[in-house]
Amino acid sequence: MFERFSKDSNDAVSLLKRDHDTVKELFDDFEKAEQRAAKKKIVAKALTELKVHAALEEEIFYPAVRAELDHDVMNEADEEHHVAKVLIAELEKMTGKEDHYDAKFTVLAENVRHHIKEEESEMLPKAKRLPIDFDALGARMMERKEELLANGIPAVAEDRVADPKADSPARAAAKKKRVVKRKTA
Ligand SMILES: [Fe+2]
Questions:
Q1: Residues with beta carbon < 5 A to ion ligand 1?
Q2: If I label 137, which of 11, 37, 147, 152 is the partner at 20 to 30 A Cα–Cα?
Q3: Whole-prediction pTM value?
Q4: pLDDT digits over 113-137, tens only?
């Protein structure tokens, strides 16, 4: 049996931290990748990881700790998940060739890196002190993860609002440029 909260333990906190390390590695890989195909592959992998991770936190971990933790910290985490889900939904509707594709993924990575930092420095250390059976919680999370990977991740509200032509900031910028040109012509 591994010691609780150690690197190899399957308690809920350690599982979340291992997931964090996986996505951070994917973000680093994306920064190093040069080929379009390689970038797209990394993005696809990262989006799946993030969607599963967010579902596990929202369905299982957050409800287990929310009542005992700082209201503001939990609310900020919710909002960071929301922003991430908007960007994930837009990226999923893109082909990878759009002008803003890389920028969108980079902003997602920055948002998630910040979120991870807050969870690991504020939320998780406080959660660890709560009288919760983290092994049982971790077992539930692992079971749910397998289920999500096998049967698919349920749609989220953010999927519905994502622009099908999600390169919208780029298109808006181009439109603006055209207007300015016309004015100065
Ligand atoms: Fe999270």
A1: 57
A2: 152
A3: 0.88
A4: 999 999 999 999 999 999 999 999 9
